[in-house]
Design brief:
With about 400 residues, the protein is of the alpha+beta class. It folds into 2 domains: about 5-240, 4-Layer Sandwich (Glutamine Phosphoribosylpyrophosphate, subunit 1, domain 1), CATH 3.60.20; about 245-390, no CATH class. The protein contains 6 helices and 25 strands. The chain has helices at about 75-85, 95-105, 110, 175-180, 195-215, 375-390, and strands at about 5, 15-20, 20-25, 50-55, 60, 65-70, 115-125, 130-135, 140, 155-160, 165-170, 230-235, 240, 245-250, 265-275, 275-285, 290, 295-300, 305-310, 330, 335-340, 350, 350-355, 360-365, 370-375. The strands form 5 sheets. Strands 9-10-11-1-2-12-13 form a 7-stranded mixed sheet, with helices on one face. Strands 14, 15, 16, 19, 21, 22 and 23 form a 7-stranded mixed sheet that branches. Strands 17-18-25-24-20 form a 5-stranded antiparallel sheet.
């Protein structure tokens, strides 16, 4: 069970997929990057499936073809094998006519009846990028904002003022779109229809989902989540969002609606080495806060951290292939930050923002410390938004 989506973002499409695979076999423990405890005693028992492991469900087939999957592992693997063989004759650009022919010829009714996919093809023509979309199943269902009903057997389409037209499928549809529906307009100078705007919007939704998974099992209790991949076309080729830190911060409302300086509670750093996704998951148990005019600095020593590495292979990875061993240290100025602000009645306000540049920074030195820098203006904006939302919670 999964969640996959294509957020069209006003003609700058981004692909989105979770990492969790499920099985009918009950695991001895459930360990995920968002939590430092075994989640198995806390999961819902209303489904006949259990979280089984993490694997990548997003594949860059050639430089101009990217696809996301949900469903049965064996069906996904067989489809991947065949489309990779078909695309092997093309180094970087697969003609859209060949993709269309392959999609028409593939026996989805026999070999893909319990799965879903969304394939995105990009082509540079006349100094413009043209995208072609292929979805399986082919049937679609338009979600109305008022009734907000969904189809379990089709691709659901929802028109969002933040993400544009959203295509989504699999078990996470309802909760994914519920969050999309509540997204506030982005506070950004980037314009809709630009890459910067689309990057920020998708970073925000990923940060919110990871935060809600951390504090409320929002995704995992419905057998999706575990982490998220974000894919996009950079003008020349498809890429996955890498060298990014997803930060979860927490605070509680006081009686006036103020949340103070939210403290970091968890950080997940994503990077791809070859075909493998390496996640450095850090639980932040304690630390210091230094407030300056131009920066708020959070510092935690190693004895105030719980650091766990996760290796996420592609679903069709060669099990005999050994991934490159890497150190856990990192530094990045790309942060997607989600917040959980909790009221006395345990209502949660979940804002988020995405920033890339010198005004945000995270550095972890293995064996030493974790340092996080955030411009105080960003924190002030989040506090003001929380105070404004407080009476409605």
């Amino acid at each position: 069970m999964s969640q996959i989506a294509c957020n069209l973002c006003f003609n700058v499409p981004f692909l989105f997929s979770d990492l969790l695979f499920s099985s009918r076999r009950k695991p001895t423990s459930v360990d995920l990057p968002t939590s430092d405890i075994d989640l198995s005693p806390h999961l819902s028992l209303k489904f006949p499936y259990f979280p089984h492991g993490l694997a990548q469900k997003m594949y860059i087939i050639t430089g101009n073809v990217c696809v996301v999957f949900a469903g049965r592992e064996d069906e996904i693997k067989e489809f991947l094998q065949e489309i990779k063989q078909r695309c092997a004759y093309f180094d970087d650009e697969m003609p859209v006519e060949r993709i269309s022919q392959f999609m028409d010829e593939y026996p989805f009714g026999k070999k893909f009846s319990e799965s879903a996919l969304f394939l995105l093809h990009a082509a540079n023509r006349d100094a413009k990028i043209h995208f072609s979309c292929f979805n399986v199943p082919k049937e679609t269902y338009q979600v109305q904002p008022n009734s907000f009903e969904f189809s379990r057997s089709e691709w659901n389409i929802f028109d969002s003022p933040v993400l544009g037209q959203v295509y989504t499928a699999a078990s996470g549809v309802e909760r994914y779109l519920n969050l999309v529906k509540q997204l506030p307009l982005l506070q950004t100078t980037a314009k809709k229809g630009t890459f910067d705007y689309a990057l920020q919007a998708n970073g925000v939704i990923a940060a919110q989902l990871l935060t809600l998974e951390k504090v409320a099992l929002y995704t995992v209790n419905h057998l999706w989540g575990g982490g998220f991949e974000v894919g996009f076309f950079d003008g020349e080729k498809f890429e996955k969002l890498t060298n990014i830190a997803y930060l979860v911060c927490h605070s509680q409302f006081d009686k006036t609606g103020d949340v103070g300086i939210p403290r970091p509670r968890a950080l997940m750093f994503y990077r791809y080495i070859g075909e493998f996704l390496h996640i450095t998951a850090i639980e932040i148990l304690d630390g210091t806060v230094d407030i300056h005019l131009d920066v708020v600095k959070f510092t935690s020593r190693m004895d105030q951290l719980d650091v766990r590495p996760f290796l996420v292979p592609p679903v069709d990875a060669d099990r005999a292939q050994k991934p490159v061993e890497i150190g856990l240290s990192f530094k990045t100025n790309m942060l997607a930050i989600g917040y959980s602000f909790v009221t006395a009645d345990n209502a949660i306000f979940n804002p988020a923002f995405f920033k890339y540049g010198p005004q945000v920074f995270a550095e972890f030195t293995q064996g030493d410390k974790l340092e996080i820098y955030i411009h105080p203006g960003y924190i002030a904006e989040v506090r003001a938004g929380a105070k404004q939302a407080f009476p409605r919670l």
